[in-house]
Amino acid sequence: MSYSKANLRYADEVISKRKTDAEMIQRERQIEAIKKIPEIGAYIKELSGLTFDLVKSMSAEDFDSRIREVADTNQKVQRKIRSLLTENGFPADYLDIPYTCRDCSDTGYVGGYVCSCRRALLNELNVRDLEAVSPAENCRFDNFNLGYYSDVPDARYGISPREKMSDVLEYCRGYAEDFSLNSDSIYMYGATGLGKTHLSLSIANTVARNGFSAVYYSAQNLLSDIEREKFSGEKTHTEAKAMGCDLLIIDDLGTEFATQFTVSKIYNILNDRINRSKPVIISTNLDLAELEKKYTERITSRIIGNYTHLFFAGSDVRQILKG
Ligand SMILES: [Zn+2]
User: Fold this and answer.
1) What is the value of pTM for the model shown?
2) How far is the centre of ligand 1, averaged over its atoms, from the C-alpha of 214 (Å)?
3) How many CA atoms are closer than 13 Å to the CA of 9, on its beta-carbon side?
């Protein structure tokens, strides 16, 4: 699991706002209830007096028995409040603090451990980050349509493109669900329009929902952001993000304009991630020989040895959609 500092801070703010909002709602409801049922005011006072008594007797010798006494009285008073509420048409729990998460009372932690509500929020923020830079929301495994791929066996693969892509889809789904920091890197190779972007984003979506930071870039955007940072000084932190995230996706590698600078940047990022065993998904319509021409043997040899190779078969899905 890994979350950016900004998201950790944001999650703390959201959860603490949930708590203050819930407490404010409780106070407003108390005022409303006291107006309608004045005697409830005395009981509420009695309850806060009990907390005060407890603090006062912290150092007393008979602390244990006092705790029991206070707990008993507390329950009795609570019961009285509840029955007064229902007698007057309010729900019995109307004066409980309406926490978003009852497990942790909107603190984000239970018994020193991170509460599931905080984890869920952080995962949501991971997905939001991903969607901010990619069309990820529409790319899911369940809307990947195998119907676009021919079911006629192709001599080149020995099976039909549909069967081949069904295997690819299952591989990607399994990869995403079992994703860990030790997962393999993937080299997705095949002609344009065969669903590489769709499947790499489906993986990113699942991985982000499971609490990992996934970062998606088209090769074009990745390199132009890095260039902008270098030459105009604009702080995009692109390189740091590409190096630091749990899963990096570089889509459409090879379509961008390669310079000595971009080649060395790509090499550094891929090399750094291989050295630290951090997974990458590269998608490209270049085979390894073409990639080598563009990116030197240094890069392709690392990809050959360290990546799982996935070949995408079929005819351009976008052409079929148009036709
Ligand atoms: Zn919680």
Assistant:
1) 0.71
2) 24
3) 3
